[in-house]
Amino acid sequence: MTLASPRIRPAGYGVVRLGRAAFLLHRRAALVALGLGVLLAASCLAYLCTGESYVRPAEALKVVLGQPSPDELVVGTLRAPRMVVGLLVGAAFGVAGGLIQTVARNPLASPDIIGVSQGASALTVGAMTFGITSPAVLPGLSVTGGIAAAALVYVFAWRGGLHAARFVLIGIGCAIALRSVTTLLMTKGDYLVAQQAQIWMTGSLNGRGRPEAGPLALTLLALLPCLLWAARAQRSVTLDDDTATALGVRLGRVRLGLVLLGVVLASVATGAAGPVDFVALLAPQIARRLTRTAQIPLLCSALTGALTVVLADLLARRVFSPTELPVGVLTAAVGAPYLIWLIVRSRSVRNGGTS
Q: What is the distance between the alpha carbons of residues 186 and 194, in angstroms, rounded to a whole number?
């Protein structure tokens, strides 16, 4: 949704009026967002009902609505807080991936591919090695590590401008180097701490709850004005550089702002649940294909990311029950083949374009 004159209405858009302001709303994107919201609500209900003990949907809804229920402990204490963390983490990764892919103009660019998640992981695992495991401290360290990694990639990729291919390639190199640093830190630490760090690095919601959900929710709420700006600013970034500059857009500042916002979102999500791989890669592209919009729809991307994490964690809890898999194992099982397909497809497009 973007601010525009009510007389200017591109095909596929409708006008929403709020007082004197008029906003353009993409009709298909709105319908897709509504459908994703319904699917997400149904998945959340299934998540609350399914587990070692089955809870009837009516009882689960009572707990959600704050009414007395004998299943308060199972639903309200054990399942709901973990599900909320999954929702927030998935939404944050979805938006972060959308912002970074928009700036890089490359579907391969995502926080877990270009080194942001690895930078957050390196600093967090280093802190865990020295005995710092507080849920109040780790998210802050993750943000610091993610921003530092992104700054490193941005500096090395800048050559009078931000070239998409160079940005992705340098990011992949930094990601490999930072992952090696993380592995080195794990070998130098205590055995039990190394095991804990290894589980954290696969991306897991096991044991996550209110201590992680609270700071993450407050961060997303504080960033809401920035997200509203980003939803509008990304339209100018999708234009070619000459056109955007002619329209008075300061591309350097806008790109830096979008990247910084995406890095913060990805780093905070990583601090809450570990680097849940491929969610930031998958969600924006799925949302864009569903809506068929020129730019990545951030709301649909957030809903897709949240839906992906909730469904993956539900399967991770039940597929090999009573053993629980880390949610990152399920997302990687889906995301890795998709990454290979993207690489093969991009190569085929280049070969077709040059032949």
A: 5
* Contact criterion met (CB below 8 Å) for 32 and 290: yes
Structure tokens at 8: 């200017």
For residue 118, the 8-state DSSP code is H
DSSP assignments along 67-96, one per residue = ---TTIIIIIIIIHHHHHHHHHHHHHHHHH
Strand partners, 16: 23
**Of the candidates 140, 141, 152, 204, the residue with the CA atom closest to the CA atom of residue 178:** 152
Q: What one-character-per-residue DSSP string does 297-352 give?
A: -HHHHHHHHHHHHHHHHHHHHHTTTTSPPPHHHHHHHHHHHHHHHHHHHHHHHHHH
Give residue for tokens 């597929």.
319
Please enumerate in sequence order all residues whose Cβ is within 8 A of that of 162, keeping only pairs 6 or more positions apart, or say none.
103, 104, 154, 255
Please enumerate in sequence order all residues whose Cβ is within 8 A of that of 47, keeping only pairs 6 or more positions apart, or say none.
79, 83, 310, 313, 314
Residues of the chain predicted below pLDDT 50: 1-8, 353-355
Residue whose structure tokens are 């919201």: 37
Dist. CA 215–CA 199, nearest whole Å? 21
Provide the CA 100 distance to its chain's centre, in angstroms. Answer: 10
Is residue 182 within 8 Å of 201, Cβ to Cβ? yes
pLDDT at position 209 = 85
Helices and strands, number each (H, E), in the chain: 14, 3
Q: How many whole angstroms separate alpha carbon 213 and alpha carbon 87? A: 9
Single-letter residue type at 104? A
Give the pairing type, strands 21-26 and 2-3: antiparallel
Nearest to 38 by CA among 316, 305, 303: 303
Q: Among 98, 81, 14, which Cα is nearest to 297's?
A: 98
